[in-house]
Structures are given as C-alpha cells and as structure tokens.
C-alpha cells in the first residue's frame, strides 16, 4: 500500500456477481466463475437450552446445491434477494463466509473484491455492503459496479442498451460511456420465474404430477404418456417451501431442454410444424412436447395474451424502444447500434433472433440496429461476471479501488467514487 492507493497487481481480485437465483463468484482475469451458488438457503431453528432452561432457537443454514437437497422436516428455503437487491444481510454474510472458505479456499483479507449490483440499488444498501466487507471481512479494497455496465464491457462496449432477462424480471438499461442512464431504465416483472410458473400451470392442467428426483426411490420404465409407476422415498414430510424449490428446479430443467422462442409472433400452425422434443420426468412419466414449447416463452415478448398479466406490462421489444425513447436524442443511434443481450433467460433458443425481428420493425429507418449476443450460453448467463473479470484485471482500473485506508479516513462517503 503506497499513498493510500491499492495496487492490486500481485493478487487476483475476487468477483462477486449477485443474482436473484445464484451468486457467481471467481477470480478476476479468468474467463468463467469458479462457483455458482444458489442465493436461496435452507434455514431451520435448532433448539438450544440456555441457563434458565428456556428453549432458544438458533438459526442453522444449509448452503449450496447439495446441502439444500437434503430433506429436513422443518427446513424452509428462503431467498436472501428481493427485486435484485440483498434483503437478508445475515444470510448474505453466511453465504459470503461459505464462499470464501469452501469454494474459493481464500482469505478475504488477501484479495480486493469487485461486487456487482443492480442499477436500481439504493444508497443505504450500498453503504451496508461497503461496511460489511470492510468491517466483517477485512477486505483490502473493494469496488461496486452496476451489472449492466459490466455486461456491456464483457461484449466490448462502453455504450450499449443492455437487455437483461433474469429470474425475477427483464430490464432494459441504457449505458453511456460506462455510466448507467438512470432515467432510461425500464423493467418488466416477467422473467424466468414467470416462465416456470407458466410451465407449472400447464402440467397441472394436464394432471402431470411434478415430483423432484430427490423424492423418488425407484421407478419403472414405461411407454409415452403411460401412468408412471414409482416408489416414494421414505422420510419426514418436507416443508412447502422446500418442495416448491425442488419442483422449480425440475421445471427449469424442462425449460432449458424443451422451450424455444418463436421467430415470429406465435402461430399454432407454425409451432406444430416444428419437431417435437422428448422429456422424461423423475417419476418416469415421459412425453413429446410440440406447440407448447413455443407458446410458454411467447409471454416474454407478447404478454397481452397471458391470463393475469396487466396490459401495462411490456414485452422485451417494447422495453427496449421505450428505454431508448427516454434517452437523449444524440445517443439513441449508438444505443440501437449495440443492444447487448444477457441473463439466464437469454439462453432460451431463439431469444436474440426474436428480439432482432421485433426491434427491426420498430427502429427508425435512419438508425442501424445491431443485436450483440455472445455465442455460448454461459457467456450470456455470466455476462456481468465476465465484465467484472475483465475490468478488475485492467491496469487502468487499479487506481479506482476503494482502499481500506480511504474507508478508515473518510467512511462511507468514498462510495461516490463508484459510479
């Protein structure tokens, strides 16, 4: 440490990319995260007796994919995130401790840390994060950066319109010269969880029982659409939140394997002409799926036909055009010229092509439209993390770190350096 500036060349920075569904974490300079850990934890109370022989509940946590799968009769699955922001700080602290010890095998005081945040994160939450990392984890330096800006960097852009479709929402965020234009952010509550809910409704209507694999002891091989013959694992009855989480995992598997976005607005005849996809459930029930593969994800682009969705909710295409319209005239051409697609939902087959088609009809003829979508699904899924990895290893970024010394001298005011 010289002159209060953190020189982070000798040790690799650690990148924490917090999403509603999972935390992606790894070392700066690498091309993909080292670990992806669910941000939903298993929580239960362990009764411990104190000196007055009163039973006092001590909270216990199960963290990470394998531990969550373990069934306990009183374990609830709770998410520590809400609307893309950290809601439960105690759980976040546990998750960070676990990540350092078990997944990175690193000491927090040895590595600077780059945290991502959603563009609408509040000042109070940013200050709380800064305080937690410096006071509890003793990090030598840290920086907090907007995930949309990092997703743009990951695709080689400092000015872009970032379309991020994740678990809880889809957002269009304009980024200009590495800064988010806050008045241009447009959000829709339709995301991966909404698609999962649509899948669940479809299977319930068809009377297909959704049983997660961890509850199936054995099953018989059966023909298509035959009633499944299987045996349930013995053990205590799990909580509703645990069961719901496990069923969601099963439905997400169906989403990734079977769903596809139609190139043009949904048309049943076109959908029926496409090849069907086969899917087998953990109970052994199996079937081929045709038009429903395109019908369910259609809600992201055209929510008008979906029951229970208000008319005010925009599809992905209108999100982008509305957002661009709220920005300054001078930068609109450069936003249309680099529309960056990122987030877990963008891995759905045909997502970028459909967005391109929807926008091509709405873009003013004087502007050139370009959709930038990374070739591999993992690059789209981890866009913000990859941007953080690139940024933290740039020589020019090293003087941007908020060092421990600056924090001790000036306190939370140093957050103003994080744009």
TrEMBL record:
CDD domains: ASKHA_NBD_Arp4_ACTL6-like. Coiled coil: none annotated. InterPro entries: Actin (IPR004000), ATPase_NBD (IPR043129). Belongs to the actin family. This is Actin-like protein 6A.
């Amino acid at each position: 440490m010289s002159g209060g500036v953190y020189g982070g060349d000798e040790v690799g920075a650690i990148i924490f990319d917090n999403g509603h569904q999972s935390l992606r974490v790894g070392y700066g300079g690498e091309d993909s995260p080292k670990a992806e850990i669910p941000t939903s934890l298993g929580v239960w109370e362990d009764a411990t007796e104190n000196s007055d022989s009163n039973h006092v509940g001590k909270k216990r946590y199960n963290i990470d994919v394998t531990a969550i799968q373990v069934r306990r009769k009183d374990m609830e699955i709770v998410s520590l995130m809400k609307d893309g922001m950290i809601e439960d700080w105690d759980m976040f602290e546990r998750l960070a401790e676990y990540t350092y010890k078990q997944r990175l095998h690193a000491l927090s005081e040895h590595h600077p840390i780059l945290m991502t945040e959603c563009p609408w994160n509040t000042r109070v939450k940013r200050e709380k994060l800064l305080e937690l990392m410096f006071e509890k984890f003793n990090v030598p330096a840290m920086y907090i950066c907007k995930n949309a800006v990092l997703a743009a960097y990951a695709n080689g852009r400092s000015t872009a319109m970032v379309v991020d479709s994740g678990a809880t929402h889809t957002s269009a965020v304009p980024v200009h010269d590495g800064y988010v234009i806050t008045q241009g952010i447009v959000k829709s509550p339709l995301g991966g969880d909404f698609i999962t809910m649509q899948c669940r409704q479809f299977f319930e209507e068809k009377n297909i029982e959704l049983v997660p694999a961890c509850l199936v002891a054995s099953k018989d091989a059966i023909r298509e659409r035959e009633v499944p013959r299987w045996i349930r694992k013995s053990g205590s009855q799990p909580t509703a939140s645990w069961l719901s989480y496990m069923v969601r995992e099963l439905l997400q598997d169906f989403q990734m394997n079977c769903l596809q976005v139609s190139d043009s607005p949904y048309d049943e005849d076109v959908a029926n002409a496409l090849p069907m996809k086969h899917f087998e459930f953990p109970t052994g029930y199996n079937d081929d799926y045709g038009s429903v593969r395109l019908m369910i994800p259609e809600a992201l682009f055209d929510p008008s036909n979906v029951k229970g969705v208000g008319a005010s909710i925009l599809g992905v295409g209108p999100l982008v055009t509305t957002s661009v319209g709220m920005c300054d005239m001078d930068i609109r051409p450069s936003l249309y010229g680099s529309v960056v697609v990122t987030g877990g939902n963008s891995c759905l087959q045909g997502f970028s092509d459909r967005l391109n088609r929807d926008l091509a009809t709405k873009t003013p003829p004087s502007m050139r439209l370009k959709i930038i979508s990374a070739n591999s699904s993992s690059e789209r899924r981890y866009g913000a993390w990859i941007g953080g990895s690139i940024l933290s290893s740039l020589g020019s970024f090293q003087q941007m770190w908020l060092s421990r010394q600056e924090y001790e001298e000036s306190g939370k005011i140093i957050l103003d350096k994080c744009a």
